Amino acid sequence: MTKYSKQTRLLVAVDCIIFGFDGENLKLLLIHRGMEPEKGKWSLMGGFVQSEESTNEAAGRILKQLTGLEGVYMEQLHAFGNPGRDPMERVISLVYFALIDIHKYKEQLSDEYHPQWFLLKDMPELIFDHEEMVQAALKNLRYKAALHPVLFELLPEKFTLPQLQALYTGVYDAEFDKRNFSRKVLSTGLLIKQKDKDKENSKKGAFYYVIDKSKYKDKFQSFLNFVPNPDNFLF
Amino acid sequence: MTKYSKQTRLLVAVDCIIFGFDGENLKLLLIHRGMEPEKGKWSLMGGFVQSEESTNEAAGRILKQLTGLEGVYMEQLHAFGNPGRDPMERVISLVYFALIDIHKYKEQLSDEYHPQWFLLKDMPELIFDHEEMVQAALKNLRYKAALHPVLFELLPEKFTLPQLQALYTGVYDAEFDKRNFSRKVLSTGLLIKQKDKDKENSKKGAFYYVIDKSKYKDKFQSFLNFVPNPDNFLF
DNA sequence: TGGTATTCGTGTCTTTGTAACACTTAATTG
DNA sequence: CAATTAAGTGTTACAAAGACACGAATACCA
User: Fold this and answer.
1) Nearest CB to B1 within list A11, A37, A81
2) Closest by alpha carbon to B46, among B84, B81, B91, B104?
3) Nucleotides of D under 7 A from a protein CB
4) Would you list the domain boundaries of chain A?
5) CATH number attached to the domain at A11-146
6) Which of residues 54-113 of A touch strand C (CB under 7 A)?
């Protein structure tokens, strides 16, 4: 077979938006860019799609390169394709976002990137169109989490209801009523109460819960309406 | 500036999924592919991203090339990036879907593609991964239309409630209760009742409605819950 | 011209879900 | 053992959703 010989070939990159939750706040993992242009500036973790790998594989590879983690929740968000978004050369960027349990993240030994977790409101200036990407990812995360139980991906295996509520509070930057929140969350049947308590964060201690994994798989795609009045928060 | 000289450059294509509604059924516009491989087989309309245009511009150009239409509703869906999805050469495809008023579509004179509208259930076999793309687009359309008033993009300026309901029936392949449907739709405040009736489709005639464009813009992003029990239809 | 067939358009009731709201309980600390 | 702190829980009012049936308008035909 001959090739599509007359057509222009372009660079295709993958950039990863990596969300984590430290128990109090939603955070974002950023790196110091390792190449020119804008070398050393704050940036999303990215890399070019190689000729033999799928774009999903590229995203997995890049995430692993930075975090050492595999098999975490990851989703393609959007392709950013304005010419001129990278001043050096035209690059089409496929943006993925990942949700990781921040406690599983360990700084990699050979870390040329000097990565750092940032609060959303303390984000530094980012290169190119990366801020736009982050805004799009946050919007998408809010949208998705309003309808699907995706935020559990950010928590450790065992977690408490107050932690879960803090997570929602952080993601939506809004307060939730404790009673309504726990009723709604428990009514999904997705959580299994444990016998032990987390005593770190309060005198009384809060019971741990774990996810019922089979129900989680089944119900992930259902509309669950986690967030009251989504209009108020999402748009 | 030097370029990212060591990296592989790839072909990037845009493929368009074009939905239309003929008053009774949801349809899809397909073409006979104009180049090798698989020349002459049924395919989505597509083309390569040129070096000076954004990916969105490419999508608009390709849609116009086939339909003659500009400024219609169009949205990026997903990037398909498995190596080997095109046997000739690696191509990353950015899939867009468009919603057009089928009555505005006129066959283009110089039409090398022999396009044809298909019912979803009568779709022919498509090349490459195009069927997967169509399935993803349909799922996305159902998802989006359950929450946002996007299906109006498929209707002419003046339309009746029975037509609108037929559209929802077609998109979700499910029956809706007439009374609940009209109550719900009218309660959005998005529709303006006209004085005249459509007498084509019934003896009694059905009143025309038009969209209140300013409210439509405002409320487009709101959660409107157009579809009862979305779980039953969406997954 | 009056009867018949067709589809449009509307209202009520029941059930379910949502949001607002405050007190008791458990455990630690001084 | 008293005080403090955060966890855990229940009720009520209101709104939305879903099930359901009949009268009204018009065209056509006998």
Assistant:
1) A37
2) B91
3) 4-11, 16-21, 24-28
4) 11-146, 148-234
5) 3.90.79.10
6) none
Confirm or reject contact between A6 and chain B (CB < 8 A).
no
Identify residue A209 by its one-letter amino acid code.
Answer: Y
Between the alpha carbon of residue B46 and those of residues A70, B59, B60, B93, B130, the distances in Å are 34, 8, 11, 9, 11
B10 vs A7: CB contact, 8 Å cut-off?
Answer: no
d(CA A200, CA A206): 9
Q: Which residue is nearest to nucleotide C6 (CA to C1')?
A: B203
CA-to-C1' span, A229 to D11 (A): 22
CATH class of A148-234: mainly alpha
Nearest to A88 among B4, B35, B88 (CB): B4
What pLDDT tens digit does each residue of chain B (235 aa) get?
A: 578 989 999 999 999 999 999 988 999 999 999 888 999 999 999 999 999 999 999 999 999 999 999 999 999 999 999 999 999 999 999 999 999 999 999 877 557 899 999 999 999 999 999 999 999 999 999 999 999 999 999 999 999 999 999 999 999 999 999 999 999 999 999 999 999 999 999 999 999 999 999 999 988 887 677 777 666 655 5
* CB contact A225 to B (< 8 Å): no
Domain B149-234: top CATH class: mainly alpha
Residues 6 or more apart whose Cβ sits within 8 Å of residue A32: A40, A41, A42, A43, A113, A114, A115
Closest CA in chain B for residue A233? B222
